[in-house]
UniProtKB/TrEMBL annotation:
Residues 90-101 have a biased composition (Basic and acidic residues). It comes from Porphyra umbilicalis. This is HMG domain-containing protein. Residues 363-374 have a biased composition (Acidic residues). Residues 82-117, 351-384, 705-771, 1206-1225 are annotated as: Disordered. Residues 718-745, 1207-1225 have a biased composition (Low complexity). It comes from the Eukaryota.
């Protein structure tokens, strides 16, 4: 047993057999060639296609190298070896580090001769073999970027698919980046499965279409592979781009790759048995489209193909994979049944205690807190607050100077408490102790560590006019009490001074504020007639509880009372104190600007939130709005089918199995008979051909019929569910109503009792039975299940949305944002050209999901049936031309004499404000209006709206007519007040009178940065949403996501249509609310992936989930107090989110990171305390503000916090040490090296160097030239984009920094247009 070696660890997997991928004709020749080769001693390298495996074809030279090693081993075995010595020990070799030592050969150890010193010689071959160093640990060599690894595995997979040798490294662990070839073993259908991570957004499947395009199904894709497979076009995404690059780098012609990888014209459906990746993807081929289907823990299957995005849980791929998934679940269940299940003891629930439980946080503990009397007030001898100088503005977050000054006050309170305590206590060493303490206090005062008792703080400047106090101003000293943030020190008795400003236009009393001393005077006296003063740090504790912890003032008072022993203010006084301090904060505009979207975001999400406050009748918002109501434009003019009753009948057929009424039957019959007339110029005839192709009239209930081309057929025998529908002898429908025989079974006897439970029989109300779906319709317009099977979800999921959007709803906006001329070309190609010609002009409709799905699914039928093709082209042409017709209709309605006489200014508003106005344009217009009507519009406490980063550029708009209509509706009918046309069925809550406001209207960017909000005193309406967008955005967003975007779009296009058309604005539902809508597919986010893919449409809901915790504290505030707190709450939410976006890992949590350094280094323009503040020293020395790193070092915070606040730039030099930064030292700027000219310069990375090299052509031009307004060429545009592409927002992009200006990626994105010329 001792002579046996331990078993060797297996390093390779078992051989894997793969199907031959080459040309079948060449197979016999290959077999003959292999048979003629001499047999070798080594095996043939093979590849395994398992997901995540690192086993790939080995190096072609591995066979020769293994044989060479075998020769060396033979030499070692034949060499003589010395006998072993007793007690000898083998020294451990440091040249090789192994987790498990390799066993030595049999026989004596050669190392024993070396230890004995007898002159033994070690064989050179053996020494070189044993001294071979191991592979370097993985932590020493960081892995390459994901893009490089993706190209590596993709290249290997492409070479294997083309029959070429490939080589990739073999690792011990499964890689998250892999590319394997998958396919149907029964056919030539194959594709490449590419994974770059573990999530569904990290997987893609690529293949070649029969017509020569490269297609991809991935989560981030926007192109419909089903539609593109009908032409020779390819998908445009990062995966197809990587595949083309891989083919080019490996020198493989695309024709060669296509011959091996393309699908057949009609490939068979296929479901892969193997599952890939942690998400357990299953490869499915359905209707020439590969897709990845995954099942969750709850066995909910979803498909990631863009063509299936809206119905991703019940598309054809999911239906096809269900049997295979059921088999896997059954096998897993049987295995689990056979395995023993350990018994787990369950804890018994606690016994129920009698009596009510105590609530953790009552929601009404702040009720009426503002109106209750407190212990502080202004005395009768004090001047009225209207005659007191205005309060001084303060920083939203404390700067370095405020933090240091607050520490001095806390230290002063502590030392005074120690000195007073020693004075009041007896003892033998009392005199000596007091002398020592007095010396310490005097020295501390001289060093500025504490304040002397004789210090009387007085304001230096008047807060209203800014006049500086001089010696001639008389200072009146008054008693005050100071509450510090020290946990155990008592309050400080002190004196504060006040003086009267003698300015000609001021004449105000300047009371002590305390901004320069990091104090805050509440301007209220306690019961001892002393002014109540607090340190800024104590108020920061209060705000951290109210704003950050989102608690109530009552709970905050309890917390401060237990945390600071000297704090003894009542909660009523704390509310007034906190509100007064919050109103002094300055919220910079940068706090409400997304560093990625910039000042003009392409996407905004707007939504209302029920964060209410007490509604007082005297709270009237100060807003000046223009009268721009909804114009009289009939909804029928916006539809292809202009008859409203006929559209109702169409929607009933498409959505339910409810029987048609007599009038609806006659309408459908008359519409159907237009097919026999065959008027090719009539749009409704073409629409009838489309509709009755899938829902034939009369074939199930007697009378007329229709073939697949839409041609009228002879009468058929009456049939139906109850024979209720009949037909006339000439094929027309009678006036009888379709119906069903009333149920006489047990279902008719179901009742609901008083508790809502179902009972059989009784006197309760009849139970509502479930209605039949559209599949259960019989009689007229029953679905044509003979040609399109009932269970073929793939077909019907494309038919019904297409018919609903084109025939049952308004079609305006369908081609908004698309190339209408190209869409018109495609429609005419369908109408006028031969079959197949339309396939070459399909680019224009890529972004219209329901249209591409329909055309892609029925592409072959469109070519085979000329009637179908002509009807489709005619209907699409009408939808495209509708936009121009509605433009003329709007112009006519807006310029009518009746409209102008009523004071409506729709036409003038669109003409004046249709471009890209600036705040200067708006200010000039506002100056022409009466001063009284526009006063206080910029005061958030008067206008009750706050948009710090978005100034007004247009006047608001209002609709007085709609406001009058709302008054006339009561109860459940109030939703009818804002119905946008006769086809609008999407409801929304509207104005009612109650004791509180209706909430707030939030405007959020997709990165969850709240751009602003408006307090609603009436219920949310689409008119108010439209007014906010027009007022605040000079360049309107490309897409507006809203929970009732269907209403918003219809309202806007009948009020300010030219503006939205000029800016190509689209209104789309956000994903959380779209599932509850039954409106047109035009507004569904997953039907417009070209603009919604990768956009977080739920950003407003995410913001609401954070802010909803403030509901308790805000509910009982007055409107002005509510606005004050809401503005600070949103600012703090934004700052924390901006800090996360600027960090190296935007997904990491940052709750443990202080925001003050980031705020003052990235967002704050200047300190509100002025140039005397300590934080301004660095600006005076080196010309720019401290970075977040330097501020964190100055504040003495841990180094790791400073590192997490900002991410270092690539190849950055180390920042200065903390010891080199002092109070008087220059600001420490990280990632900066010294330039040749004495200035500072950031070390550029590869992207920056390439960008600078591409722009060197500018050096041959004159040094100073007039500013050019021409657009950049493609080369310069790519160079500019390379400066910021795929880089963290905090990375510097300025390579030469002579002006000592540090530009980061976030700054670069903000400096657009003319903003770099001014102070914005």
């Amino acid at each position: 047993m001792g002579d046996e070696r331990p078993p060797r660890k297996r390093r390779f997997h078992a051989p894997v057999v793969l199907p031959y991928l080459g040309d079948p004709v060449a197979l016999p020749g290959l077999v003959d060639r292999l048979a003629s080769l001499p047999s070798g001693a080594l095996g043939i390298p093979v590849a395994v296609s398992g997901a995540g495996t690192e086993s790939r074809p080995a190096d072609p030279t591995w066979s020769a190298r293994v044989q060479a090693v075998g020769v060396r081993r033979a030499v070692v075995s034949a060499s003589p070896r010395a006998p072993a010595q007793v007690g000898a020990r083998v020294p451990r070799e440091r040249a090789r580090v192994e987790k498990r030592p390799r066993p030595l050969p049999l026989g004596p150890s050669l190392a024993e001769d070396d230890e004995g010193g007898d002159g033994g010689v070690v064989d050179v071959a053996f020494s070189s073999f044993r001294a071979t160093p191991g592979r370097a640990p993985s932590h020493r060599a960081p892995p390459p970027p994901v893009d490089a690894r993706m190209m590596e595995v993709l290249s290997a997979c492409v070479r294997r698919s083309c029959g070429l040798p490939s080589s990739t490294p073999i690792g011990r662990h499964a890689s998250m980046v892999s590319a394997v070839m998958v396919g149907d073993p029964e056919s030539r259908s194959r594709a490449i499965l590419l994974r770059v991570g573990s999530g569904k957004a990290d997987a893609a499947i690529l293949w070649c279409s029969y017509r020569g395009g490269i297609l991809c199904s991935c989560f981030s894709g926007t192109h419909n592979a089903l539609f593109l497979s009908a032409s020779s076009r390819s998908c445009l995404c990062q995966h197809t781009t990587a595949l083309r690059t891989s083919l080019s780098k490996n020198g493989i012609p695309f024709a060669t790759f296509w011959r091996r990888m393309h699908l057949d014209p009609t490939p068979a459906n296929f479901v892969g048995r193997q599952q890939y990746g942690p998400m357990r993807f299953r490869v499915v081929l359905y209707r020439s489209v590969f897709a990845l289907v995954t099942s969750t823990a709850g066995q909910v299957a979803t498909c990631i193909a863009p063509s299936c995005r809206r119905f991703r849980a019940r598309c054809g791929h999911v239906v096809l994979s269900r049997p295979s998934n059921a088999e896997r679940r059954a096998a897993a269940a049987s295995d689990a049944a056979m395995a023993p299940v350990p018994k787990i003891a369950k804890d018994k629930p606690a016994a129920v205690v009698d009596g009510p439980t105590v609530p953790r946080g009552p929601d009404d503990e702040d009720a009426g807190i503002e109106s209750e009397p407190g212990d502080t007030e202004r005395s009768t001898g004090d001047a009225a607050e209207a005659t007191v100088a205005a309060r001084v503005r303060r920083n939203l977050l404390p700067c370095v100077g405020e933090i240091k000054a607050g520490a001095v006050w806390a230290r002063t309170a502590d030392w005074r408490a120690l000195f007073s305590g020693r004075c009041s206590s007896a003892g033998g060493s009392r005199a000596s102790d007091l002398e020592v303490m007095s010396n310490l206090v005097e020295r501390s005062v001289r060093l500025g560590m504490i304040h002397p008792r004789t210090f009387v703080p007085v304001e230096r400047f008047c807060g209203s006019c800014g006049r500086m106090r001089e010696d001639r101003h008389v200072v009146k000293k008054e008693r005050a009490v100071l509450y510090t943030h020290h946990p155990t020190a008592p309050v400080i008795e002190m004196l504060v001074g006040r003086w009267a400003c003698d300015g000609a236009e001021c004449q105000r009393l300047v009371e002590y504020e305390g901004s320069m001393d990091a104090l805050f005077n509440s301007r209220r006296r306690d019961k001892q007639r002393r002014w109540v003063v607090l340190t800024r740090a104590l108020l920061d504790k209060l705000y951290s509880y109210i704003i950050t912890a989102r608690s109530t003032y009552t709970a905050a008072t309890r917390h401060l009372t237990s945390d600071v022993l000297s704090f003894a203010l009542r909660r009523q006084d704390v509310v007034r104190l906190g509100t007064a301090m919050l109103r002094t904060f300055v919220i910079p505009a940068e706090a409400a600007v997304c560093p990625i979207c910039g000042p003009n975001p392409e996407f905004v999400v707007i939504d209302g939130q029920a964060l209410v406050c007490t509604d007082h009748d005297d709270a009237n918002p100060a807003r000046y709005e223009e009268e721009v109501p909804v114009l009289d434009m009939a909804a029928s003019m916006l539809c292809v089918v202009q008859s409203a009753p006929l559209r109702v009948a169409i929607s009933k057929v498409l959505r339910s199995a409810v029987a048609l009424t007599a009038s609806q039957t006659l309408l459908l019959d008359a519409w159907h008979k237009t097919i026999s007339v065959n008027d090719r110029s009539c749009v409704e005839t073409a629409a009838a051909r489309l509709f009755f192709r899938f829902f034939p009239f009369g074939t199930k209930a007697g009378g007329t019929g229709v073939d697949r081309s839409g041609t009228l057929t002879g009468p058929t025998r009456a049939a139906g569910k109850a024979g209720a529908s009949a037909a006339t002898s000439d094929g027309g429908a009678t006036a009888e109503t379709e119906g069903t025989t009333p149920s006489t079974g047990l279902e008719a006897k179901l009742r609901k009792d008083e508790d809502g439970n179902l009972t059989l029989g009784g006197k309760g109300t009849p139970a509502k039975l479930p209605s039949d779906s559209w599949r259960d319709r019989v009689g007229h317009c029953a679905p044509d299940f003979d040609n399109y099977p009932r269970r073929d979800d793939g077909a019907w999921l494309h038919i019904r949305p297409f018919l609903q959007a084109l025939l049952g709803e308004t079609v305006t906006g369908m081609f908004q944002g698309h190339n209408e001329a190209a869409a018109r070309l495609m429609a005419n190609s369908l109408r006028l050209q031969d079959a197949g010609m339309w396939r070459d002009v399909t680019d224009a409709v890529d972004g219209i999901g329901f249209l591409t799905n329909f055309v892609g699914w029925f592409a072959d039928e469109i070519d085979n049936d000329p009637h179908f093709r002509y009807a489709l082209g005619t209907t699409l042409l009408r939808a495209v031309d509708m936009e121009h017709d509605i433009d003329e209709l709007f112009s006519t309605a807006a310029n009518k004499k009746e409209t102008l006489d009523r004071g409506w200014v729709n036409a003038d508003y669109c003409r004046k404000w249709g471009g890209r106005p600036t705040p200067t344009d708006y200010a000039a217009w506002l100056a022409t209006k009466p001063a009284a009507s526009v006063a206080d519009m910029d005061n958030p406490l008067k206008s009750f709206e706050s948009f710090p980063g978005l100034q007004r550029v247009r006047p608001g708009i209002k609709d007085s007519e709609a406001l009058k209509r709302r008054v006339g509706y009561k109860g459940k009918d109030k939703h009818a007040a804002d119905v946008e046309g006769d086809g609008d069925s999407c409801n929304k809550a509207f104005s009612i009178k109650c004791g509180s406001t209706q909430g707030v209207f939030n405007v959020v960017c997709p990165h969850v940065i709240t751009l602003g909000f408006r307090c609603l005193f009436r219920a949310e309406s689409v008119g108010e949403a439209l007014s906010i967008v027009l007022e605040r955005f000079p360049q309107l967003p490309k897409v507006i996501f809203y929970d009732v975007a269907c209403k918003l779009d219809k309202n806007a296009l009948r009020r300010v249509r030219p503006i939205l058309r000029a800016h190509n604005v689209r209104c789309i539902l956000d994903r959380p609310h779209s599932i509850t809508h039954t409106c047109s597919p035009i507004y569904m986010p997953d039907e417009s992936l070209g603009v919604t893919a990768g956009v977080a449409t739920q950003a407003a809901e995410v913001s609401h989930s954070i802010a909803v915790a403030n509901r308790t504290s805000l509910a009982y505030m007055k409107p002005a107090t509510y606005m004050t707190h809401k503005m600070v709450q949103i600012a703090m939410m934004n700052i924390r989110k901006q800090q996360r976006l600027a960090s190296a890992n935007p997904k990491a949590e940052n709750d443990h990171i202080p925001l003050a350094p980031f705020f003052h280094s990235q967002l704050s323009r200047h300190c509100q305390r002025g140039s005397d503040c300590d934080c301004q020293d660095s600006i005076a020395n080196d010309g720019h503000r401290d970075t977040a790193d330097a501020l964190a070092v100055k504040l003495g915070w841990p180094t790791h916090l400073a590192e997490e606040i900002t991410s270092p730039a690539p190849r950055a030099s180390p920042s200065p040490s903390a010891a080199a930064v002092g109070d008087g030292a220059a600001a420490a700027v990280d990632n900066v090296v010294q330039g040749d000219d004495g200035g500072s310069a950031h070390p550029p990375d590869d992207a920056a160097l390439d960008a600078v090299g591409a722009m060197q052509c500018l050096s041959v031009r004159p040094r100073w030239m007039p500013m050019s307004t021409e657009p950049l060429c493609d080369e310069h545009t790519a160079a500019v984009e390379a400066l910021v592409a795929d880089r963290p927002p905090s990375s510097p992009v300025r390579t030469a920094n002579k002006a000592k200006i540090t530009l980061t990626v976030s700054d670069f994105r903000l400096l657009v247009g003319e903003r770099w010329l001014n102070d914005e």
